[in-house]
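The record is given unchanged here:
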Amino acid sequence: MNAHHSILIVDDDDALRLLLAEQLGEDGAYRVEQAATLAAARGVINRPSGGRTDILLLDVNLPDGDGRDFCAELREKGIHIPIVMMTGSHDEDDVIRGLDAGANDYVAKPFRMGELKARLRAQLRLFENSEDVVFDIGPYVFHPARKQLLDQKKGQRIHLTEKETAILKYLYRAGGQPVERDVLLHEVWGYHASVTTHTLETHIYRLRQKIEPDHGRAGILLTEGGGYCLNPDL
């Protein structure tokens, strides 16, 4: 969780790809991966383990195919991560074809880095509020819409209550920073006079019993700074 999101940059222009990787990876904003071909990109996205891609920055023209066709291929497979296409063309028909293939956004080269970063952030915000979003939390893949954690190595599914799901989702979005008890109470329960910090602590206890590998001992969901956080070192 040091880098909150992972991004895969697919472009055969080595100089541009390396520049993008450097700029997007600064300050730990993204965990950056790179591919110069569609074949290499498929290898990253389809790997059975070792991290998930949260957003794809995809060039149109690649040595082994058209990025728009790859975008359509991913959508047909049910992969819903945000895809931002890059192209050297300003032609409207070119942009329409990319969006029709399932791209979320389109940027024309040369682009301004600040604008690109803003577009990526906007797409991630939209995706994180969608039903398709998934998160990595420790050994688990977290599916908020299903109220479920999946341990892929063990093949174990952990079912969560609505409140447990909301707690994990809010703590994940805090990026490893402690969230005070009162803040978490308000975000999960809203304004309910009957709800106290004891209610929250009870839910945290039950959640730990479900998700902590070491018999409920806090290693994933930590108590810190007058509140709770997810372990930023996972």
User: Anything to note?
Assistant: The first helix runs from residue 14 to 25. The mean pLDDT is 88.
